[in-house]
Write a structure and sequence with these properties.
65% helix; single chain; mainly alpha; flat
């Protein structure tokens, strides 16, 4: 186990070292500029960000995690002796998600503008 960890660390260290030795290093003023999504940096560093996109991403993560929990639940639900307990636990879990979705709906997060 320890030998495998050492080999893994050495592999990563050698790969990074080889990359550092083999890459061309020619710093130019254009390369030293801050790069942001293909847009040249002009003006101040402060910009207005649309927060609603982060909220949509957060909602996606919540429901992706929900789907990840559904698969193990389905396998345990099929096991003998665990049916009622896992069913109650899943409804509690789905209740928490429903409360979060209702909260987002009441705040107007889900309204596309």
């Amino acid at each position: 186990m320890g030998l495998l960890a050492v080999v893994g660390v050495l592999f990563v260290a050698v790969a990074f070292g080889a990359g550092r030795l083999l890459r061309p290093v020619v710093p130019t003023p254009e390369k030293l500029l801050t790069y942001e999504c293909g847009v040249d940096p002009v003006g101040e560093g402060w910009a207005h960000t649309q927060v609603r996109y982060y909220v949509y991403a957060f909602l996606y993560v919540i429901f992706a995690v929900d789907s990840v929990f559904l698969f193990p639940w389905a396998t345990v639900f099929a096991a003998p002796g665990f049916g009622a307990t896992t069913l109650v636990e899943m409804f509690v879990f789905l209740g928490f998600l429903a409360v979060g979705l209702l909260y987002a709906y009441k705040k107007g997060v889900l309204a596309w503008t």
